[in-house]
Amino acid sequence: MLGHTSRHVTSLTHMYSNFIITSIVVEIWFKCAAECPYFVFESALQLISHLIAVFPCSKYVTEEGQRIVGGVLIGTGLWIAVTFVMRNVLKYLLSWHGWMFNRHGSLSLTTKIWLVLVKVCSGPKPMLYSFQNSIPRLPVPPIKDTVRRYLESARPLMDDEQYKRMEGLAKDFEKNLGPKLQWYLKLKSWWASNYVSDWWEEYIYLRGRGPIMVNSNYYAMDFLYVIPTTRQAARAGNSIHAIMMYRRKLDRAQIKPLMVLNTIPMCSSQYERMFNTSRVPGVETDVLQHMNESKHIAVYHKGRFFKVWLFYDGRLLLPREIEQQIERILADKSEPHPGEELLAALTAGDRDPWAKARSQFFSRGKNKQSLDSVEKAAFFVTLDDTEQRYDPENSVQSLDSYGKSLLHGKCYDRWFDKSFNLIVFKNGTMGLNAEHSWADAPIVGHLWEHVLSSDPVRLGYTEDGHCKGNPHPNLPGPQRLQWDIPEEGQAVINSSLKVAKALADDVDMHIIPFNDFGKGLIKKCKTSPDGFIQIALQLAHFRDKGKFCLTYEASMTRLFREGRTETVRSCTTQTCDFVRAMMNDKATKLKLLKVAAEKHQDLYRLAMTGKGIDRHLFCLYLVSKYLGEDSAFLKEVLSEPWRLSTSQTPLQQVDLFDIKRHPEYVTSGGGFGPVADDGYGVSYIILGEDLINFHISSKHSSPETDSHRFGSNIRQAMLDMLDLFQFDNKASNK
Fold it and tell me: Is residue 570 part of a domain?
């Protein structure tokens, strides 16, 4: 794979650099011998003499030549030793996570010393994959700790009788079956890079047989308040060029790895399959097909598919040249082939019918060639014939429509199997729709931040809205893909479209740009912004439904090799105590809020440092199924529905955006569909000091949910919680 090739190239580059450095050290060593003959030079000559004596050389090699060979051997040995020691020292250092448990805004002396050591061992200019061999493996938590934390998380959601029963099941599992399953899991953790990630990818994503549209794929939005150009082709030209420039940097491993506190590296393995990747349907399980290289993209417009080469004369096309190709597609008036317009609905419906149709109708001839052009493209582009944007005069409806369009579109105008789709609307607004199995949202978010920061600022547009530069006079045009889909195949397409339409029509999407206050004011309250928002979501949910529910918050485990996500169970006993106090207007509300926020931060730290609950229990369950051992405890735990699924979209490259001077030029975040039929999906992004965007989804078919009602409850919960601090400040001032 290209990602692995890039990693090896990067590794060889570092090896060569280290060898040069070691050679220089050896040279300096010998030069210094003039001043220290009895310490350095003499010892080096004695070592070389011993080597010559022990390993006799050819009589045709002079003594001087033998000394050179000896010097090279010593230099090589020293280089290997230094590299090995530095790598393992860094790995040992990165296995310590005590730094995460420091109080917010302060670092202990131990942590400061540790950070300096990590910095020294990391080198001056690390590349994307520089740390991969030094990042530690994800540890397997003790059974006892996982069971204890699970019971603690389950307590606020159960009455006394239910809890007593679950406690009995848990203790029985901990004593009897658990240790046996744990032994197998530890065995896997010794030889696997990550004991969770391969099973997570296969069983949570690739083995799912339902539609991935809405249920799995997610979206990312454009700027909220500005469109750099209203020319669809021009916006596509700049964006496609920016994406390909990102791919070039990715292939060369020139992207700086994500670092916590600008020092602690996170795993970069998920970047490897960002481009040239497609999810291929199978009857029992899908597979991820990744190409070493792809020099074209697939473009969809008004029911037609096109193949567009992005290289000419050995170079990447410039933005104006890509715009020229897109203009040709927009000007093409040809009609779709029979079945072509709705073809992508196969990727939006159930997986088994798509797998069978692919084998039956797309395994030979022109259909196979055209399908290969789509699946082996660098990425997929949809030139949407609708207009979407934020309208201040109709903010609610315009944003809801925009979000739904990015999430599912018309159900046949996005290729949901591609690693990601770039969607460019008729009026120049754009967005992404990403498949979830190959990586998590922060990886796509990193790409999207690069694109948005490049588009209006670095690349820019002419006064009349075109990309800068000139069209190419001899550029070959896009290639129209040819299809010959029989009536039976068209029937399967229509059947998949029917399933997808029913799913899409049921989505109740609501987006709130919350600008009453942001993280600036929350930090003044000496509270974690994420903890504050999570507690507000609990208060809003209780007001919305009159009850608490099992809550999922995604956190990253990329401090470990090939780490993906872990669950933070945000509905805690402490949070429930605070919510009840708010509902009963008790005087201890502020104190309980601070306790709940601190508890949430502790849970988040535990999840990030490999001490979470849910991935461990998930893997234990898989081992039990493999061994044919039934566990009532594990079966009940994994069948519990997540009626509130939440995720924060982090802004990772803050230096790319000048939010204070240009708050309009910043991503609006993204969202996903509801996880439970009677639950909510909530994504949020904290932008600068004064803005938080919420993306809320649910299902119209559930009588319990209403995304707009829940949005109103979130807004009110945020304001009510802030009032607690303001009232407290007023009392203190008196």
Answer: yes
Same domain (yes/no): 676, 555? yes
- Do 516 and 655 share a domain, yes or no? yes
Q: Is residue 186 part of a domain?
A: yes
CA distances from 246 to 1, 251, 252, 523 (A): 18, 9, 10, 34
Bridge partner list, 671: 219
Q: Is the same domain home to 199 and 230?
A: no
In a domain, 619, yes or no: yes
Q: What is the helix (H) or strand (E) element at residue 265, kind and residue range?
A: strand 264-265
Segments forming the whole domain that contains residue 468: 212-505
Cα dihedral 441, 443, 445, 451, rounded to 10, equals -150
Sign for the CA dihedral angle at 524, 223, 127, 647 comes to positive
Spatial distance between the Cα atoms of 265 and 397, rounded to a whole number of angstroms: 41
Q: What is the pTM of this model?
A: 0.88
Question: Please, are residues 645 and 679 in contact by the beta-carbon 8 Å criterion?
Answer: yes
Determine, yes or no, domain membership for 102: no
Express each pLDDT in 446-489 by its tens digit.
999 999 999 888 899 999 999 999 999 999 999 999 999 999 99
Q: Kindly state whether residues 368 and 486 are assigned to the same domain.
A: yes
Rg (CA), the chain: 29
Instruction: Examine the domain organization and report whether 375 and 484 are in the same domain.
Output: yes
Quick one: 472 and 557 in the same domain?
no
Q: DSSP assignment, residue 475?
A: P
Active site residue 436: yes
Structural domains of the chain, count: 4
Mention every residue, 6+ apart, whose C-beta is less than 8 A from residue 54.
none
Which range is least confidently modeled, 21-30, 182-191, 286-295? 21-30
Q: How far is CA 198 from CA 26, 192, 195, 615, in A?
A: 44, 9, 7, 12
pLDDT tens digit sequence for 690-720: 889 999 999 999 999 999 999 999 999 999 9
Q: Whole-angstrom Cα distance, residue 522 to residue 241?
A: 39
Question: Over 60: is that where the pLDDT of 63 sits?
Answer: yes
Q: Which of 241, 301, 337, 436 is flagged as catalytic? A: 436
CB 633 within 8 A of CB 169: yes
The pLDDT tens digits of the residues spanning 537-567 come to: 999 999 999 999 999 999 999 999 999 999 9
